[in-house]
Amino acid sequence: MARVNKLLEVTSQVASMVNTSTEGALDKICDYLKPALNCNVVSVYAVAENSFTLIANTGFKKSHVNNLSLKKGRGLVNHIVATGKTLCLSEATAHLAFYYVHGLGEEKYHGFIGTPIYKQKEIIGVLIFQFLKKHDSSIDDIALIETISHLISGYVDKPQAEPEVTNVDSKISARGVVQGFFKGSVIKRLMMEDGSPEAMQPGLGYEIEKERFDEAFEKSKSFLKELKEKAVNREAGDILGAHLMMMQDPKLLEKVDGHLQQNSSAEQAVTKATNEIADMFKSISDEYMQLRAADVIDVGRRLYSTLCPKSSEEESDSQTKVVCVANRMPPTVLIEEGPSKFGALVLVEENVYSHNIILAKSMGIPTVIISSDQLMSLFEVDELFVDGELGLIVPNPSPIWVEEYTRSHHTTEESSFNHLGKCKTKGGVELVLGMNGGFQKDVENLPDWIPEIGLFRTEFQFFTSAKLPTEEQLTENYTKILSAVKGRPVTLRILDAGADKQPPCLHFVREENPVLGDRSIRFLLKDSEVIFTQLRAMLRAQQATNGNLKILIPMVTVYEEVSRIRDHIIKVLRDLRREGLAIKRPPIGAMIEVPSSINLIPKLASMVDFFCVGTNDLLQYYVAADRTNSLVQHLYQWCHPTFLLTLKGICRSCEEVNRPVSICGEMAGEMWGSLVLTGLGFRVLSMDRQAIARHHELIAQVNLRPLEKLVAKIVQVNTALEVLEQLQLFLEKWNLPQDLEDVLQSELNNLMYPS
Ligand code: PEP
Ligand code: MG
Predict the structure, then answer these.
(1) pLDDT beyond 70 at 342
(2) Among 95, 160, 169, 431, fewest CB within 10 Å belongs to which?
(3) Which ligand 1 atom is the nearest neighbour of the CA of 496?
(4) Which atom of ligand 1 is closest in space to residue 667's alpha carbon?
(5) CA–CA separation, 246 vs 463, rounded Å?
(6) Is the Cβ atom of 496 under 6 angstroms away from ligand 1?
(7) Does 23 score more than 80 pLDDT?
(8) From the CB of 459, is ligand 1 less than 6 Å away?
(9) Helix, strand or coil for residue 182?
(10) Ligand lying closest to the C-alpha of residue 458
(11) What is the pLDDT, as a whole number, of residue 401?
(12) Which of helix, strand or coil describes residue 305?
């Protein structure tokens, strides 16, 4: 903004205006400063008893002057007064103290510098410069604003009368993970966490809590009875009947009563009692008992949500979509209710790479992540507005604000990208941007510019049925998928269940550490029936459609896993041929997502036709940080320089053995992720459907050479933060369209401050 000469020129001009002007001096100074400093808004606020009043401004509507009043206790102006310091923000809307004032259109301003105006050591006002673009302030900028604030202090008086406080829509900065926005009433799917506010709060005494529990118990009982009567089929009726019995089990009621007597709240008593009984069931390694554990947890959840105000049950009849605020939500909830019921998701302490997020992406449900602290501020909220791209939550938004926001942030329909051809860099280097899917619906009406399904997660079909899907059901499903894509390659991944994806029909036993346990092909190779059924279905679908099937092996850890699965495929092909179905062997690929598989690449190359890197799991095992655990999210970041170096090594190894390699982890679907991967040498990326068009736009704005140079730098530095700093520098030198720059900046902010 200002160099030293400029600084002197501006301050001397302001000083002379201060000395010579009388009427409207502050307004004149603001009018002068806006072009002189190349900023877009200059404002002066005066501090009143209960509020801050705008007393001079250039940039907003003039009618706001002396009429706009902000309540004390919120917003950036308040933050400056509270700290007594100059505040410089490259992206103001990302600051936690930022509050949106409707009518001002402030969210379009990004860069921000504000400083207190002191008179005799007391803060009497605030001077603010705002910029349309992000703005990094220099020492000169700070010196300038502080000098000007000193010069104008004589003109800042307490407002005569405090205007009525302007209606301010509070904004919560969340982490945006699935784009799109939605406004709706709130339902909660909350389980009490250890250490959460409800868990810490003692009960209100035995009598009161017992009465609360009894009431919830009766309500839940009649609700379950009613549901049972309306059950769509016998199986559903049986399950609900079993839940009813469990809820009335004297042992459970005894345990609840015991906890209530020890001064627990009704919520605590229900949680503790159901967990204790579930643990008892889980400790018996018997399939039936494992299932009972899941049932008892469900019963607990129902009682708990009936106890909480605005429980899910109260609103479950509603046809209108809602915003679901949830913690520790099992993927089953999303699979059952997600697409029809949830217009947006606010997930508490969820990891960005969890399967819930992957599912939300595939279902196109706008999603943000918040912290437990932020959850507190949503307890009394009826309605929420959620923007999953910018990570914005507005509790109880005013209709006028929603209208304005929706108008200025319209979403683009997929059909408007029909002009897209192949994805190319500015210099014409081609990339293949494939798509990740998991449901049949994901691959319907695929536009021409999506060239392939780079990863189809087959496990979600197993979640939707109580019994194992039959060969016929799987064949029908895969046939639909292969025909829907009209000849484009489809990489069907062999069932990758376990860890955080445990379909009930597979009856996983409880393990201390399931992420390192019996999951994916480790589990399948013990039970040949499921894998044979699945392979037969895949190959029969290929035969029926004359499709372009590729089979992908997940969680490859050792050589013999691949050789055994390859033998299985060959056996199934032979069996099918004997049955009269002549099918060519489809390409077989191995996932590189366990570190031990990296050095196996040269050996595996003789058995597979392609490799596919699963960065989600690879990172989890590389940094030894559970991808679903928000406590270690600071470690679970792809931008560790050595992780990037590892990816580079994988790319090189695949090149050396002449096998194509793609990336299908979530990193490929992030804007910075795809740029870095391109610079590392990867040319085939697979991501969720909604991200593809945006990536086309981004890649067309960049040449390969600068990306390679950037990557050469970031693999050399010591820390993830240094990597991010390099990315920030790269962004600053890059002349991008504003909307792309905003998305890249917001992604970078999320990477820098992951929690
Ligand atoms: C991965 O691990 O990167 C991957 C694509 O598989 P999933 O996320 O389904 O584990
Ligand atoms: Mg994986």
Answers:
(1) yes
(2) 160
(3) 9
(4) 3
(5) 23
(6) yes
(7) no
(8) no
(9) strand
(10) 1
(11) 67
(12) helix
